[in-house]
Amino acid sequence: MILTGPKIQQEVRAGNIRISPFSEEQINPNSYDLRLGNTIKVYKEHLLDSRKSNETMTLHLPPEGLELRPDTLYLGHTAEEVGSDRFVPVLRGKSSTGRIGLFVHITADLIDIGSHGQFTLMLHAVQPVRVYPNMRIGQVTFWTVLGDITLYQGKYQGSRGPRASEVYRDFDRETP
């Protein structure tokens, strides 16, 4: 079951959901708005190799915004740190950002229970679009769980700022 906005606020106050910084103005009927942080990463190479670490460069979002181009994947992050050991966060784009042709989170919208940190946003523009630091860009919902809980302890735990893919690390664990 999905938590309502008032229930999200109640669980934040009780310490069962962490959203920092938290603002009541960002509560929706069944979600919480997330803002774009001030750092963007882009990959240096056009061809990305899933078996290696791909180099990135970091851009800082100026107050006048940054134009995102359709031919580039941008890694942004939420201004807020979010997490819960009791509820499962699900990250979505806002319909208002989708209506200007911006995919906010291309895939992997399910955040593991026990994961805490800033969310990395996988930004893709359908056509050129300008984004600004602290704009409301996405929303998080929280879902109750059924069954025993195993808390996330993976490679992206405690993320601050945008994190590039570490899928190459998975090849080390796979059997040939």
From TrEMBL:
GO terms for molecular function: dCTP deaminase activity. Coiled coil: none annotated. Keywords: Hydrolase, Nucleotide metabolism. It is an enzyme of class 3 (hydrolase). It holds the Pfam family DCD. It comes from the Bacteria. InterPro entries: dCTP_deaminase, dUTPase-like_sf, dUTPase_trimeric. The keyword Ligase does not apply. CDD domains: trimeric_dUTPase. NCBIfam families: dCTP_deam. This is dCTP deaminase.
